[in-house]
Design a protein that fits this description.
binds nicotinamide-adenine-dinucleotide, 2 domains, 330 residues, two-stranded antiparallel ribbon, Rossmann fold, 19% strand, globular, 12 helices, Dehydroquinate synthase-like, alpha domain, 46% helix, 10 strands
Amino acid sequence: MKQAELGFTFDISHTFASYCEANEINQAFIITDENTRKFCLPLLPQRFPVITIPPGEVSKTLATVETILGELLEKNAGRHAVIFNLGGGVVTDIGGFAASIYKRGIRYVNIPTTLLGMVDAAIGGKTGVDFQFYKNYLGTFYQPDAVLVSLQFLDTLPEEEKESAWAEVVKTALIAGKEVVRMIKSEEPLPKIIASVASLKQEICEKDPRDEDIRQLLNFGHTIGHAYESYRLSIGDPVMHGTAVAKGMLYETILAVRLGLLSDAEADRMLNLITDQTHVSGLNEEEFRGLMPFLAGDKKNRQGFIVFSLPTAIGQGAYGIKVPQADLKF
Ligand SMILES: NC(=O)c1ccc[n+]([C@@H]2O[C@H](COP(=O)([O-])OP(=O)(O)OC[C@H]3O[C@@H](n4cnc5c(N)ncnc54)[C@H](O)[C@@H]3O)[C@@H](O)[C@H]2O)c1
């Protein structure tokens, strides 16, 4: 499966215009949410009709996809129309999904406007929506033609969104990118780090487009992290995704040592980096007990075992590691 063209720019208006010209795009639609319509759309040359959805995870439903498809139909979008998704992971996941099924699939381009989108969600061709109580339950693997990354959009992104996404930057570096760990530690410029993490994700997805193999490395911190997120939601006190992933990484790093996969010295360095970079502390006993029931429902589980992706050294990891739930200790 061919991956998208990945482009970095400091002038999204110019890049957008030249992309449209070079690809002879005559009919296109821009999908935004209400925030990206307000803050990000003005940075593009206004050439195409805009479809706007409400912001946030609540929009990731089949009903929103139906609304988008309805608007495409009403505006006579043809088979050669192109969708530009201008937004964070919510917009790129939904817009990509709509593109993948409209007239059996039309072209689309992601223009991520959140840090998470730039380093993760906009890359790799996973599209989809939530269904009933399950996150990302319906979807397709459908590659965008291009991902156009511009840091200009980060100027208006709320600080807490950046902090949350930074945990994913640290995760990708620790499990798959020793060089990026070095860049983070030596405080290299943000554009350089973002470009490296985005390219790393792209490289991994190229090797394993359907998430059957090495792409699972990127789940580091997420087995415990997702269960913790669900637990916090269940007690009516939700946390940012990045906080949950950071807590997950802290626990899973120690688990890697217990399983003999990682040395104490490497683990210490990793734990320090995670806390320094995310300012998140490890799980307390109450949180650990609280999340346990939610581990059982993880879709990565196999026959009573909980499946983890764990670090084996800084910047390296192993995936598909099965641990009996009873062996998980506080
Ligand atoms: N497809 C994948 O591979 C993949 C990977 C990771 C995450 N995801 C999905 O991504 C979603 C989370 O993405 P996200 O963190 O980007 O959240 P998001 O898309 O909800 O954006 C976060 C908030 O920031 C606002 N916003 C976006 N850009 C802005 C800007 N430049 N200025 C001001 N406000 C802006 C949005 O309107 C929203 O309120 C989840 O649904 C998750 O499942 C998908």
